TrEMBL record:
This is Sodium/proton antiporter (CPA1 family). The keyword Ribonucleoprotein does not apply. Pfam families: Na_H_Exchanger. One of its GO terms (cellular component) is plasma membrane. Keywords: Antiport, Cell membrane, Ion transport, Membrane, Sodium, Sodium transport, Transmembrane, Transmembrane helix, Transport. It is a multi-pass membrane protein. The keyword Cytoplasm does not apply. It comes from Actinoplanes italicus. GO terms for molecular function: potassium:proton antiporter activity; sodium:proton antiporter activity.
Length: 524
């Protein structure tokens, strides 16, 4: 009962914090992190212990899966080169450089433990960077690169952590062993993700009940992760591949009702998980500080060096990775040279998150599994401090930096024009289908359907017009909403007076809700 109460309290705080963040114009992860930091020192507030297996198997899969579902596969494919440079090359470089720097400062600490710390703090978070990037209005290619990096870099980092821990505990690991492990984890995760995605797609095609569709969708990421862990492949790669595959094919796999329901379910799960995760990260503060046995002077010094190194390495990597590759004519012709402000913003968007803390918890205690005596408490604290510092320093200043450098993009007019053109083509196709199948239908029905096609086309073109004047479709939406409210009120009164049963009210209300939802979509 106590655990249930604590969970309800955490979810309630996360919801209130997210609502407060929206009202104040801040990004929810930052507000919830600060709230968790403050609550961790409130006397009597329950201590939070974030188990790494819960994060890696219970929390991370749905977050990565939803992010992959929403990622544009064509855009991801076009940005694959910079994504892999960041998700693989930068992570490996960061792990090695940070590892050697920490080892130089603390020669008594095994190099393997230092490299493990470097791999732990190397991957930027999959949630915070993209949440902030979208709220700022960064160019779509920049958002795609940040999304792609955060989807894949966890796999690289976790493989390096496992290799470093293996070396720390005395396992004989050579270059051949590392290569085999990389192929096994990454390649196995790719194949497993594709296999499960194909299987899930087949199930979605066969299922006609929207509730069963939702159930399959909810189970998919967890089943993929559990099987991947059992087979010792990369669960991150498997989940991301499955999400990309299914997200690209959702328009062909699901019925309209299933898509609407699934979107609502995933948005709720994503909202709650993101909130609780960052709140829990903040609540770890008291527990992490209480475990510190290393002197505070050493702790602060190592933390400062690691934080500075992470910033410097990302900047040093970004500019050559951006511009040297464009010396190749084929790449230069396909990818125009961006202004220097673009890699600057990408370099600054390196916030760490919950995966860093979960990976830190996998470090074996001294004397366990053959691990030597080393300052595990120090490494865990540094990992936690890096999460807090990057979120508070980079997360709060990224919007200002993007505005200052002018790295923002307003695609509303371009999107409206593209939608209007495609809507015009879709309207022609709809009218051709109507003429083909209209034989025997009442003329009033045919005219009504023609009017619907014309109305949708007009709505699309109206978005290109004067934004300060109410368009005909906007007036229609405003008036129709008032009519729906009046209709809904009549049904409620009839139910209250016993003139209709509850089932009639529910059915009528659902139809009105669906229509009002469509009106809201037209306004957006």
């Amino acid at each position: 009962m106590e655990t249930i109460v604590d969970t309800v309290v955490l979810v309630a705080i996360a919801v209130v914090g997210a609502a407060l963040a929206r009202r104040l114009g801040f990004v929810a992860p930052l507000v919830l992190l600060v709230a968790g930091l403050g609550l961790s020192f409130v006397p009597g507030f329950p201590e939070a212990h974030l188990d790494h297996e819960l994060v890696l198997i219970g929390i991370l899969p749905p977050l990565l899966y939803v992010a992959a579902l929403q990622t544009s596969v064509p855009a991801f494919r076009l940005a694959l080169r910079p994504i892999l440079l960041l998700a693989v090359g930068l992570v490996v470089l960061t792990a090695l450089v940070v590892g050697f720097l920490v080892h130089m400062m603390l020669p008594a600490v095994p190099l393997a433990a230092c490299v493990a710390l470097g791999a732990i703090v190397a991957p930027p978070d999959a949630v915070s960077a993209t949440a902030i990037a979208r709220s700022v209005g960064l160019p779509r290619r920049v958002v795609t690169i940040l999304e792609g990096e955060s989807l894949l870099n966890d796999a690289t980092a976790l493989v390096m952590v496992r290799v470093a821990i293996g070396a720390l505990t005395g396992a004989a690991i050579g270059w051949m062993d590392i290569s085999v492990r990389v192929v096994q984890t990454a390649g196995g995760g790719l194949l497993l993700g594709l296999a499960f995605a194909v299987g899930a797609a087949w199930l979605h095609k066969k299922i006609e009940d929207p509730l069963l569709d939702d159930a399959v969708a909810l189970l998919t990421p967890f089943v993929v992760v559990i099987v991947a862990e059992k087979l010792h492949t990369s669960s991150v790669v498997a989940v991301v591949v499955a999400g990309l595959y299914l997200g690209h094919r959702i328009p062909y796999l699901l019925s309209p009702t299933s898509r609407l329901q699934m979107d609502a379910v995933w948005r709720l799960i994503n909202f709650l998980l993101e909130g609780v995760v960052f709140l829990l990260v903040g609540l770890q503060m008291r527990h992490v500080i209480s475990g510190i046995e290393t002197s505070w002077a050493t702790t602060v010094q190592v933390t400062a060096v690691v934080f500075g190194a992470l910033l410097a390495i990302r900047f040093v990597w970004m500019y050559p990775a951006t511009y040297l590759a464009r010396l190749v004519p084929r790449i230069r012709n396909r990818e125009p040279r961006p202004p220097v402000t673009v890699p600057t913003v990408i370099a600054w968007a390196g916030m760490r998150g919950v995966v860093t803390l979960a990976a830190a918890q996998t470090l074996p205690p001294p004397g366990v599994d053959g691990a030597p005596d080393y300052p595990r408490d120090l490494l865990i604290f540094v990992a936690f401090a890096i999460i807090v510092l990057t979120l508070l320093v980079q997360g709060t200043t990224l919007p200002w930096l993007a505005r200052r450098l002018g790295v923002r993009e307003d695609n509303s007019a371009q999107d409206a024009l593209a939608e209007a053109n495609i809507q015009h083509a879709a309207g022609r196709a709809a009218l051709e289908a109507l003429e083909e199948h209209a034989d025997g239908a009442p003329p009033t029905v045919v005219e009504r359907l023609r009017g619907l096609v014309e109305s949708r086309g007009n709505n699309a073109w109206e978005r290109l017009g004067n934004q300060n004047r109410e368009t005909p479709s906007a007036a229609y939406g405003r008036l129709r909403r008032e009519m729906i409210r009046a209709e809904r009120h009549v049904f409620k009164i009839a139910r209250n007076e016993g003139r209709i049963p509850e089932e009639v009210l529910v059915r009528a209300q659902r139809e009105l809700d669906l229509e009002e939802t469509q009106l809201q979509r037209s306004d957006d």
